[in-house]
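Lay summary

Proteins are chains of building blocks that fold into shapes. Our project writes down both the chain and a compact code for its shape. Here are two examples, one after the other.
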Amino acid sequence: MAERGSGRAERPAGGAPGDGRAIRVLLVDDHQVVRRGLRTFLEVQDDIEVVGEAGDGDEGVARAGELRPDVVLMDVRMPGTDGIEALRELRALDNTAKVLIVTSFTERRTVVPALRAGASGYVYKDVDPDALAAAIRSVHAGHVLLQPEVAGALLAQDEPGGGQGRGTSLTEREREVLGLIADGRSNREIARALVLSEKTVKTHVSNILMKLDLSDRTQAALWAVRHGLPG
């Protein structure tokens, strides 16, 4: 699919949050009119650059591999490979793009599996444009966007017993890191707050996930909230 230029001056490719580079965004939605509307709005944002589009999940996975975007705006229900399966494929391929689900479906059975598959959050298709731009910036910075009712649904599905006991194996430093994860901090922000290297923080995060038998940061943040660990 050929990509249209934005007509603006060339900008550096997207990088780490706070480095002044444009956030590179890939649009994945089977409705061309939706993609066009998203592109039209996002292209007027000085710090966001739409680098590509895809019309289904398979194409989205392929384009994400080619373009290496910072953030993927992913529809849930698409013909063929849907957004949730595409998200699982991205994670299996170790693609590090943040995935923000853009959906018109509010059912928990739609949104919760997407979050469990590794999405950084979700917004509805009728979201205010400025709120969408803010959501993109937020997930790019490493934050997790959860509506209260969906967070509650995720917590309700957690194992009711034994979770707190697993927490006793965490070191004091790991508990500090987990609290900052629950506060929505990225590894870089945690490193700065605790005066550690990012490599050390990544090691702590890996140990936390292993000890708590969790698969990702979203589940870690929810575990911390459920067990009263302050951010």
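And here is the second example, written the same way.
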Amino acid sequence: MTIRAVIIALPALTLLGLNAPAHAAESAYTSAATDKGCVTSGTPTPEDEDMGNVSLKCAGYKDYPFYFNAYDNRESTYFGHLSKAILDGAGETFETFNYVGDKIEWRLDDDGVPRATILRYMIQNLNPDTSEPDKAHEGQVLVISRVGQPDDMTGCITAYVDALENKDANELARKLADEQAPGFPCGKQQPKFHGKTGKLSGYPVYNYPDLSAAR
């Protein structure tokens, strides 16, 4: 084949779609509100009720639920189809008092299956002058999680991005969600911050069962 023939052939391959770029992951959004569409998991004790502690299973994306736990003014979230060991034994959150944002971003693969989520956590740091939390000292962290699938029942937090310190925080979080989260070894590796971190980002608390069979 001559050089001219090669040059002519390349556009033909492109027209056939052989050189077309891979389909990019897409996002779907659902509410993180827990005032409706949720049912209580387990039986809360009188102490839990007094302190406002709660464990909920909420409507998520299609048949992928959203699990919400609140304990001592700290919150943790999990997504998808999860084993009893995770539901009973996991509770990843932050050392500082915190609360989640109002919107869950689900990252979908080429088949429309949710593989990861991104949820903003508000970190309630104390004002050193008043010893009370205020907006001026509030941190924001994008928390990326692996979504549990029916064939693995495994989900966990996989990465953190300081939303105040990184101008491209959303793009970085989506990249981590698409490339890292689906295969993250829950129970074998702890999540960490990616990108820049500041003094308002808080300190993650890792409480997760050892899942030796996690894929």
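What can we say about the second shape? The first strand starts at residue 26 and ends at 31.
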